[in-house]
């Protein structure tokens, strides 16, 4: 059984972190943080350090770290998702801010998203941190296809997800 794992990383793994958040993984990014600072943050918050660095300073021996090679997005995603369960449902977390998205009505979305989106009558979500709106459009369809090809398993669509 894969345990749910919360991660902390730096901006060098931004693309991986965004993809993981789409799948519901809790990944905090500390921009510009040194490796030691990532370990400090992990210790305070009970997180696992996600890094492409080979270093694991001795004084942080008790802190879990997961090493992924840089430049192999698909391979890294496979490794992580095989060993670690997400903390929430796919499409329920802002890919930029890592916070839980809120469900929003079509009425609330008027003027905020293109009219064709509100007319589609799909599930709309909104990030309370950055204010970005999300809906199951072509970007989500492309990402879903990429996830399914990469992980070789079906990924639930946003429409069938739990309400945020
Ligand atoms: Zn956000």
In short:
The protein is α/β, with parallel strands linked by helices and 164 residues long.
Layout of secondary structure:
Elements: E1 6-9, H1 14-22, E2 26-29, H2 35-45, E3 48-51, E4 65-67, H3 73-83, E5 102-104, H4 106-109, H5 115-120, E6 124-126, E7 133-134, H6 138-151
Parallel strand pairs: 1-2, 1-3, 3-4
Antiparallel strand pairs: 5-6, 6-7
Helix pairs in contact: 1-3
Give the tags.
alpha/beta; 6 helices; disordered C terminus; 4-stranded parallel beta sheet; 2 domains; 164 residues; 3-stranded antiparallel beta sheet; binds zinc ion
Count all strands and give the number: 7
Quickly give the structural class: alpha/beta
Ligands bound, unique: zinc ion
Tally of structural domains = 2
Q: Low-confidence parts lasting 5 or more residues at pLDDT below 50? A: 160-164
- Could you give the order of the helices and strands? EHEHEEHEHHEEH
Rg, alpha carbons: 17 Å
Strands in their spatial order, largest beta sheet: 2-1-3-4
Percent of residues in helices: 25-40%
Taking the alpha carbons of the first and last residues, their distance comes to 25 Å
């Amino acid at each position: 059984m894969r345990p749910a794992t919360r991660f902390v990383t730096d901006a060098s793994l931004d693309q991986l972190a965004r993809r993981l958040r789409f799948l519901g993984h809790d990944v905090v990014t500390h921009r510009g943080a040194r490796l030691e600072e990532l370990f400090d943050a992990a210790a305070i918050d009970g997180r696992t350090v996600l890094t492409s660095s080979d270093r694991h300073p001795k004084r942080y021996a008790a802190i879990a770290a997961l090493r992924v090679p840089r430049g192999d997005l698909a391979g890294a995603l496979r490794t992580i998702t095989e060993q670690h369960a997400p903390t929430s449902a796919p499409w329920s977390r802002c890919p930029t801010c890592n916070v839980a998205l809120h469900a929003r009505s079509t009425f609330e979305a008027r003027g905020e998203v293109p009219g064709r989106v509100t007319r589609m009558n799909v599930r709309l979500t909104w990030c309370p941190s950055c204010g970005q709106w999300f809906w199951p459009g072509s970007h989500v369809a492309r990402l879903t296809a990429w996830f399914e090809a990469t992980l070789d398993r079906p990924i639930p669509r946003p429409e069938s997800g739990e309400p945020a």
